[in-house]
Design brief:
It comes from Bosea thiooxidans. 16% of the residues lie in helices and 22% in strands. The protein is α+β, with helices and mostly antiparallel strands. The structure holds FE2/S2 (inorganic) cluster.
Length: 81
Amino acid sequence: MTAHFYWNGEPVPFRPGETIAAALLGAGIVHLGRGRIFCGIGACQGCLVAMTGAAAVEACLTPARNGLRLSPLAEEQADHD
Ligand code: FES
């Protein structure tokens, strides 16, 4: 079975070495809640997403891992992280 993580409960496949952002873009997902993937180098914070069991992460810098559960960042998370 292809490696995948979950975005809003839906499986998103990824290839080894891909970031979360690359896999989301590959699946046609560009809007991440409050922001979108813009710089791709960790500078704009537009790609912040919520990861179950962890603080918000930058999708463009974070390697995809099998079984991760991700979702758009809630307003209160973005304001306090
Ligand atoms: S796209 Fe700019 S920080 Fe990730």
